[in-house]
Amino acid sequence: xxxxxxxxxxxxxxxxxxxxxxxxxxxxxxxxxxxxxxxxxxxxxxxxxxxxxxxxxxxxxxxxxxxxxxxxxxxxxxxxxxxxxxxxxxxxxxxxxxxxxxxxxxxxxxxxx
Length: 113
Ligand code: 5GP
Ligand code: ZN
Prior knowledge:
The protein starts with a helix and ends in a 9-residue tail after the last strand. By secondary structure, it is of the alpha+beta class. It has two helices and five strands. The protein is globular, with a radius of gyration of 13 Å. Strands 1-2-3-5-4 form a five-stranded antiparallel β-sheet, with helices on one face. Strand 2 (24-28) and strand 3 form a beta hairpin. The protein has helices spanning 4-10, 57-73, and strands spanning 17-20, 24-28, 36-42, 81-84, 100-104. The model has no long low-confidence stretch (mean pLDDT 97). The protein has one domain (4-104): HIT-like (HIT family, subunit A), CATH 3.30.428. Zinc ion binds next to helix 1.
């Protein structure tokens, strides 16, 4: 499958890894929108939240907790941070392998700003 983030998980495209386990991979965004901008993904290919199924519930819980972990490891535990996932055309989703952005390290703008 021609998926950028599957290739990042496989290691055929390089990335700056911040966390990995059996199910989850997390790395630095190549074009950071905040002082800390990480991406947390399941190793399993799911195109977006729209394609997630009930059987993915535990996996998505693992991804969410990995987002908490990498945010804390980046020093954002006290200051706070934003976790978001874009879904489809109107959101501006560019990479169709579900990913959770972890943004922080500064006061973030209001959503839709
Ligand atoms: P989306 O708009 O799909 O929610 O976000 C995709 C994100 O992936 C963007 O923030 C973009 O900067 C990031 N990105 C795109 N290509 C690469 C890449 O090759 N490596 C890394 N580390 N991030 C990427
Ligand atoms: Zn993929």
